[in-house]
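A favour, since you know our structure tokens better than I do. What I am after is a single protein written out in full by you. Could you add the entry underneath, on a fresh line?


***
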Amino acid sequence: MHSQTPIDHGAWSAWHPAELASRLSGISRPWCIVGGWALDLWHGRQTREHEDLEFTVLRQDFGVFRDALKGMEFHTAGDGVVEHLPVNQEPPATISQIWCLDVEVRRWRVDMMIEPGTRETWIYRRDPAISRPRVEMVGTTAEGFPYLKPAIVLLFKAKYQRAKDEIDFERALPKLPASERLWLKTSLAASHPGHEWLKRLQESQCPRRSHHCDRDT
């Protein structure tokens, strides 16, 4: 039964990705880890502390994942407001973020992001004009943990440019494949014209500013 006692928004004791993957094992619907942890899974090591853990699911599959996360209580999150989501009630269309509360310890464990798209096609929820085949946007670790590829994670992070986002960008930039750099540059130009990362992406491709630079992308 839902407790009326408010839970501190900062009461996070986030799972490790391995715990989430264990709980979701056997689910055939698309999902993947996103945010800072996705970048670290791509790096192959943890590069910094993470205050939370985020993963994404298709909106039509929300009920499947809610059923799989036993012992959790679900809360919608948007515009700084966190509200309990009653059992069997679907999140409103305007909501794209669900915080999952461990009922036993009263701590937030994982942040479920709800996205548009289909099993075949990934769609950027902030700009539906930006899309790509889903098979191209998800990587998998040796342990089998699915994660959102770095260029897409950085596109989401570009909106905020928090200190941790800048660190994540700097660490990822030298390792980004040329095709991912080009995709990120194109998507940033469309969604965040004039963003300072665009210049840095260009410089990373062409440190000597050669007029032949774009041929390397």
Remarks:
- The chain has one domain: 17-216.
- Residues 70 and 198 are 43 Å apart (CA to CA).
- Residues 208-212 have pLDDT under 50 and may be disordered.
